[in-house]
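retry 2 of 3: previous attempt timed out while embedding 1,3-dihydroxyacetonephosphate. Reduced batch size to 1 and resubmitted. Inputs unchanged:
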Amino acid sequence: MARLPLIAGNWKMNLNHLEAIALTQKIAFSLPEKYFAKVEVTVLPPFVDLRSVQTLCDGDKLLLKYGAQDLSPHDSGAYTGDVSGAMLAKLGCSYVVVGHSERREYHAEDDDLVNRKVRAALKHGVTPILCVGEKIEVREQGEHVGHCNNQLIAALKGLKAEQVSNVVVAYEPVWAIGTGKVATSADAQEVCAALRAALAEKYGAEVADSVRILYGGSVKSGNISELVKQRDIDGALVGGASLDGDEFSKLCALAAGGPLP
Ligand SMILES: O=C(CO)COP(=O)(O)O
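retry 2 succeeded.
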C-alpha cells in the first residue's frame, strides 16, 4: 500500500504566536500546492500559538496541517494546566505528539500514561504521533529493537486493529535528538522495519502496511532524501530544522521528491 509521507515540524517550546504566524506563512507560501499531493506537512506549535495558526490556515485555506505537542488523558475537569483532546479537535488539530522522549524524561511519562493519551487522542479524532526510541545505553547493549517494540506495544494496549491504523509512529532515538548525530538510514530502517513487523504480528499485515512510521532525530534537508528512500520510513518528525522556514520548506520539497521551490 502506498503511504503518503508525512513531515511533521515539532517546534517544541519555541516561537510566540506572532512568530508562529510568520513561520506558518513562510512555509505555506514557499511550498506550492503541487507538493501537497506528494507529502503531507504539519506544524506542531506550542498550545498558545494554535489559535493563531488555525485562523491563518482556515482563512487562507492552506493545505498545511497543524497539531499539538501533548494532550491530557482526561476529557475535561480539574486538571490545572492541561489541554484536552476535545479542545484540540475543536481547534481543527490534525495531529498530536504523544510520548515524546522529552515528556517521558522531564515529566516522568510512563507507558501507561502514553497509552491513555493515545486513546484520548483517538477518541477525539486527533491522530496521535506516537514516539518511541532508545537511550544510548540501550543501543550500546544491542537492545534497541526490543526496547522500541515494547514501547510500541505498551502504548497501543487495548486498541482495536482499526484504531491502530489511525496512529502514526515516530522512531526517535534519544541520542540523535538535537545532537546533530543522525542515525544512519540503515539504523533507522532497521528499527522502523522491526516496528512494522511487530504491528503485523499483533494487528495483521494490512494494518501494519497502512501505518506511517516516521524517523526523528537531527533530520535536515541534507539527510531527508536518504531517509525517505528507506522502505519502512514514511517521513520525519523534525525539531530544530522545522524552525527555519527556508530549511523546512526545502526539506518538505525533498521529501516530496523535489524539485526545490
Ligand atoms: O525531537 C525531535 C522531534 O520531535 C527531533 O529534534 P531535532 O530534529 O532537533 O533533533
